[in-house]
Amino acid sequence: MFTGIIEELGTVTHLDRQPDSIQLTIQAEKVLEGTQLGDSIAVNGVCLTVTAMTDSSFTADVMHETMRRSSLKDLRTGASVNLERAMALGGRLGGHIVSGHVDGMGHISRIATDGIARVITISIPKEMEPFIVEKGSIAIDGISLTVVSVGSSQFSVSIIPHTMSHTTLLDKHPGAAVNLETDIIGKYVHSFTVGSGAGSKSSGLTMETLLQHGF
What is the pTM of this model? Predict the structure, then answer.
């Protein structure tokens, strides 16, 4: 599990690209502290397993399913990526619960200035709409953010200067793809109340029942 609080920006130094997989080598510093082979590191919000490492880099495999669902397939040598180690037991949960399992991609449609903040509007696939709510949490390229508004097939977040300058969002422009992970609690509630997948049936759990029990 992760928190969505980015620890550092890494740099892609090598790509071994195959038709259905990619092997990434990323130069990093802070996230290598205490890291061992087999540990998890979130790369732009995608949980990857460290398969090899040196004093200044680590290597991880990107499987076909991850390529299909995320923007990692579009990475190029020299690209900056958001990095976060898995959350330590007993550590602070400064963001929200992030699994590193990306639901899909969105595209930046607009970037505006609001005082000190940048307001980024992201267009999303229709199927992701039920999981994004105003003032709810979302991870964008692994960054824990709060949804400030929701529209038809889009939502907006407001970014403080520190987050802009310490993540890849600083270099994003309209049209750029971003990895999205919606709130895991919302996904479970939706599954229990509505069901998921073709032919699925509701469990009988309703919003009224949840409210009666303090949720």
Answer: 0.87
